[in-house]
Amino acid sequence: MVPLDPVPQPIDHVLAGAPDAPALIERGETLSYRDLEQAVARLAGWLAGFGFAPGDRVASWLPKTRAACLMPLAAPRVGLVHVPINPLLKRAQVAHIMSDSGARLLLTQPARAATLASEDLPAGVVLAEAAGEGDALPRSTADPQALAAILYTSGSTGRPKGVMLSHANLWLGANSVAHYLEIAPEDRVLGVLPLSFDYGQSQLLSTWAAGAAVAPLDYLTARDVVKAVERVDATTLAGVPPLWVQLLEADWPAETAARLRRLTNSGGALTMRLVAGLRAIFPNARLYPMYGLTEAFRSTFLDPALVDRHPESIGRAIPHAEVLVVRPDGTRAAPGEPGELVHAGPLVAQGYWRDAERTAQRFRPAPVFSRYGGTAVWSGDNAVADAEGLLRFVGRDDEMIKSAGNRISPAELEEAAVAGGEAAEAVAVGIPDARLGQAIVLVLRGDATAEPALRDRLKRDLPNFMQPARIEWRDDLPRNPNGKLDRARIRAEVTS
Fold first, then answer.
1. 53-102: per-residue pLDDT in tens?
2. Which DSSP string do the residues of 248-288 spell out, in sequence order?
3. I want to staple 103 with a disulfide (CB 3.0 to 4.6 A). Which of 13, 59, 246, 384 is the partner?
C-alpha cells in the first residue's frame, strides 16, 4: 500500500514508479517511468521557450493524447498554471475559458483549431496545433502552495467557473487516493473519464503516485470500454453512474470482466440496483463508492467491505481530509440529523479564479469544532451521518423538492424509480404547484409502456407525498461534458 505522506511536494514529483516499469499506455505504445520523466522534462522545456512569466496560464484542448496526459506535470514544472479544457466543449465555451483564465497559450489539434473564429482567442494568445520538445528541464522546486492548475466546472448551472488548485492540493490528493484504493505497481488503470475533470485527472496522478500504469481511453460506446479492458489487461476502472448504466447493458465476456479488480464511483450515488449489477458482472472487483467536490478534489470513500451492508453510504473522509455535517447555526449535527456537508483540510482548493464573490460564498472559515480549522468548502450538499460515522448523501439544498410541507430528496426518488427495472435512469425534479408548493416530475430513460407497473410499485414503496405528479419517458437523457446527467437542462425543460 502507498504510505500516507502529509508533506506535499511539487506535483511533477508524483512520478513514483521504478524507472523501467510501465507508466503510460497510449495508442498501443508503452512509456516507462524513465520515458515519461523525459517526456515531461522536454515538454516543459518547449513551454519554457515561449518566455511566459511564472504564474501565466497555458491551456490544452485535447482528447486523451500523450500531450494531454503530460501537460498537468509539464506546465507546473516550468512555473506555469495548466488549464485543461474538456475536448467535448465547443468554441463558445472554449472562448469563455480562454478569456476568463487569461491563458497565454492554447495547445490543441488542427481540426479543433479550425473551428475557432478569430475573435474566440484574446489578442496575443499563442495557438499551438501540436506540442513540441525543448531542452529537458529538471523537476520543479516550486512552493507546494503555489497555483498549479485551474479546473473549470462543466457549467451546467451557468458559466463555467475555474477552481484553483495548488501543487499541494494535487499531490496530497494523489497520495490519498493511491493509498486508500491500495493501487499497486502491477495495476493497470483504464482512464475513461475526461482529464479536465478532477476525478479524471486523478486517474493519472494517483496511478503514478502508486507506481502503476494508466491507459487513457477516448471511447464512443460501452463496447469500446469492454475491448480496452481486454486489450490493456486493465485491473481498475473509474466511472460515474451513467457510465455504469451503459456498461451494465454491454456484453461482457466472463474472462474480460474477471480482469477488473477495482471499480470506483463518484459524480453521483450508486443505487442498490447498480451495486447488484456490478457485483454480478464483476465478481472479482472491489467496489469503492466515493463523493467528491472539485473545490476539494475528493471528500469521502466507502470501504468495499461495507458496501453490501450500506449501499446508500458515501463512507467517511478520505486521508488528508476532514468532513463534517453542520447545522444551519454552525454547530455539529447529531447522528441521524441532516446538515450541510463541510470539507476542511489541505485538499481544499484556493477558491474560484478571479471570482471573489463566489469564492466568499463557498470558501468560508471552518466550523469551530474542526480539527484542521482554516478555510473549508461549504458544499451546499445535505448529508447525514449515522451512529458509526458513515455518511449518506441527501441532496443539494437547491435541488431538494419541497412538496406539501415535506422536504424530499431527489436521490431517494430516483433510486426508487430505477429499483424495479422499469427505467434505466431517472431524474426527479420539483415544479411549481399552487396547491403543493412543488409537484414531483420524474424524467426517465426507458419504455413508457412500463409506466402502469412502475406507478403500482411506487405506490407500494413510497408514501403519498413522494408520488410523482407526472412521469416523462425519453429514449435518452442529456449529459454534461463530464458524462453526468445534465440535471439543470432537464429541470429547465420540464419547468419551461
1. 999 999 999 999 999 999 999 999 999 999 999 898 888 889 989 999 99
2. HTS---HHHHTT--EEEE-SSPPPHHHHHHHHHH-TT-EEE
3. 59
Beta bridge partners of 323: 343
**Is 309 exposed, middle or buried, given 0-12, 13-18 or 19+ CB atoms closer than 10 A?**
exposed
- Say which residue, 467 or 268, is predicted with more confidence: 467
**Residue 4 to residue 92: CA distance in whole angstroms:** 42
State the burial class of residue 366 (Cβ atoms within 10 Å of its Cβ: 0-12, 13-18, 19+).
buried
CB atoms within 10 A of CB 436: 18
| Strand spans (E) along 355-436 | 363-365, 375-385, 391-396, 401-403, 406-408, 423-433
24 phi and psi angles, rounded to 5 deg: -140, 120
CB atoms within 10 A of CB 373: 14
Q: Is 399-495 in CATH node 3.30.300.30? A: yes
C-alpha cell at 60: 490544452
Q: Looking up cell 444551519, which residue turns up?
A: 328
* Residues 148, 168: Cα–Cα separation, whole Å: 9
Cβ–Cβ < 8 Å for 26, 39: no
CA atoms within 13 A on the CB side of 478: 11
> Under DSSP, is residue 357 helix (H, G, I), strand (E, B) or coil?
helix
Rounded to an integer, the average pLDDT of 347-352 is: 98
- 40 in Cβ contact with 208 (< 8 Å): no
Q: Is 490 exposed, middle or buried (0-12, 13-18, 19+ CB in 10 A)?
A: buried
The secondary structure of 152-174 as a DSSP string is: EP--TTSS--EEEEEHHHHHHHH
pLDDT band at 154 (very low <50, low <70, confident <90, very high): low
State residue 405's pLDDT score: 63
- Name the DSSP class of 390: -
| Calpha distance 105→56 (Å, rounded) | 9
Identical topology for domains 11-385 and 399-495: no
Domain ranges of the chain: 11-385, 399-495
C-alpha torsion 104→107→108→109, nearest 10: 120
- Residues 345-364, mean pLDDT to the nearest whole number: 96
Q: What is the model's pLDDT at position 163?
A: 96
- Which of 16-20, 115-119, 161-165, 242-246 has the lowest average pLDDT? 242-246
C-alpha cell at 149: 492548475
- Residues 335/387, Cβ–Cβ less than 8 Å: yes
| Nearest one of 443, 323, 467 to 381, comparing CA atoms | 323
